[in-house]
Design a protein that fits this description.
Largest sheet: 5 strands, antiparallel
Shape: globular
Helix content: under 10%
Distance between the termini: 24 Å
């Protein structure tokens, strides 16, 4: 007899991560925020680009639609959905709005994507709605099974750090309040929740005044302006229970990803400043702890501002089967793949250089390298030299294609890679060996944002219309994965 009510599923997304991986369609469209190179000083607005990634299409690798924002100076950054796979049990809900926070403007756009190829504006959360709650600098947007959207915030509106979460009604875009009950975290950035273990964990970048103008060491190594901790919350009580200090090796823990299987209490977080990956696990007493799992060694160099050039882990993701972890190494310029079938013994299985600061022919000369025998060649794809460095990552549902974009944050892009700003961003595709591990550049794929109609732009995070492995959170379905 068929099961009654919403417990049958039929809502947005997929029942389980493996369901998405095995039965999800091949991606045909990417949504990509495109930021003006001048950042908040730009007179032209940022826009949402719709990119054709269907190899059977006559417009393959082209931007087929551009949706300019109503205002300039937003610094579109990350995005999320009005609903996702956490709402799979509710057939009355539909994933039809992309949520776009303005990292600098404090404005949040709800973009209607019911026509996937031609998004249009629908609702806006104005900056005043956020500022009157004493928060600013919105970053990660995740949908909740309650029909709300939850967005992490980093500041207090005056440039100081403040880790909080804004709740927004997904149907009306009305701000309903703040999530945390009781003490708030000192800093904020990314977050992921796991109701099965009654936990949410949030990471930290720092106080907005410490990073909005670029990378400044006086702020980076100051505990009052840069974070180095993870904040652990009770999901049901909405309370901060524990703060895990990662130490100096964990300065600026940015993107945080749990394993997708909701019954596995394991997460990984990439720490930017010293290029380390920490693994976060749950103890038997219900508390959580973190330990370094991957360490990218520095390179001794000449021609750099310092005698050593650290890596910088700026994005990570995990395949839907929880087998592979990927991360971008923004200063060195490589993308790495690790087999984490055993999460306690990560194994490097793939590495591809897509630019960065240590390629041959640049001002930096590597004089000692613990990993490579020689400096990598600067890559060229379809005749286009890849200026800048790999940054944001998005993996196809089946795990076979890894898309890589090249913009981080406009003040930092201008500081570290001025040629990238001059020539515009790129998106390239890495073909993934899902059986044995390994990656290689697909030389037939390139999206060149240096050739946009109104000039070069900086392309950041990527989304598919049907959801992906960094926007969807799964609740426990009762099935064994």
């Amino acid at each position: 007899m068929p099961c009654p009510g919403k417990s049958c599923g039929g809502g947005p997304g997929y029942k389980t991560p493996l369901d998405a991986m095995k039965n999800g369609p091949r991606e045909k469209i990417l949504y990509v925020p495109c930021i003006q190179p001048e950042g908040d000083k730009a007179t032209k607005p940022d826009y949402l680009a719709t990119v054709d990634v269907d190899p059977e299409s006559p417009t393959f690798c082209q931007v087929i639609h551009r949706l300019p924002m109503p205002y300039s100076g937003d610094e579109l950054h990350h995005s999320g959905w009005n609903v996702c796979s956490s709402c799979h049990g509710d057939p009355d809900l539909k994933r039809d709005h992309l949520v776009l926070p303005g990292f600098i403007s404090n404005r949040v756009y709800f973009v209607d994507v019911s026509n996937p190829s031609a998004p249009k504006h629908d609702m806006i959360v104005e900056p005043e709605e956020m500022l009157k709650l004493g928060v600013s600098t919105p970053h990660t947007a995740h949908c909740l099974s309650t029909g709300q959207v939850m967005i992490s915030t980093l500041g207090d509106g005056k440039g100081n750090g403040k880790g909080e979460f804004v709740l927004i009604d997904a149907k009306t875009a009305k701000v309903t309040g703040l999530w945390t009950k009781g003490p708030q975290a000192k800093f904020g950035y990314d977050f992921w929740y796991q109701p099965y273990f009654d936990v949410m964990i949030a990471s930290e970048w720092g106080a907005p005044r410490g990073f909005v103008n670029g990378y400044e060491t006086e702020y980076v190594f100051n505990k009052e302006t840069y974070g180095q901790s993870l904040n652990v919350y009770s999901w049901s009580e909405q309370r901060l229970l524990q703060t895990i200090d990662l130490g100096e090796e964990g300065i600026a823990p940015l993107e945080l990803r749990f394993l997708h299987n909701p019954r596995k209490p394991i997460a990984f977080v990439g720490c930017a400043v010293f290029a380390n990956i920490f693994r976060v696990t749950r103890k038997e007493d219900g508390t959580w702890f973190a330990e370094k799992a991957i360490d990218v060694p520095e390179k001794k160099v000449e021609g750099w501002v310092l005698p050593e050039i650290q890596g910088s882990v700026t994005d990570i993701l995990i395949s839907l089967d929880d087998r592979f972890l990927y991360f971008s190494n923004f200063l060195h310029g490589d993308v790495r793949q690790y087999d984490i079938s055993d999460p306690f013994n990560p194994r490097l299985t793939g590495q591809v250089f897509l630019g960065g600061s240590v390629c041959k022919g640049g001002p930096v000369k590597v004089v000692e390298d613990k990993e490579l025998k020689e400096q990598p060649e600067r890559p060229v794809v379809k005749g286009r030299t890849l200026h800048g460095s790999p940054q944001m990552l998005q993996l196809s549902l089946d795990g076979k294609r890894l898309y890589v974009s090249s913009a981080l944050f406009s003040p930092w892009d201008r500081q570290f890679y001025p040629d990238h700003v001059k020539h515009g961003s790129f998106i390239v595709q890495l073909d993934v060996d899902v059986e044995n591990g390994g990656m290689k550049v697909n030389h037939d794929f390139l999206v060149d944002f240096g050739k946009e109609p109104e000039g070069p732009v900086l392309a950041h995070e990527m989304r598919y219309p049907g959801g992906d492995c960094t926007s969807d959170i799964w609740l426990d379905s009762g099935d064994k994965e």
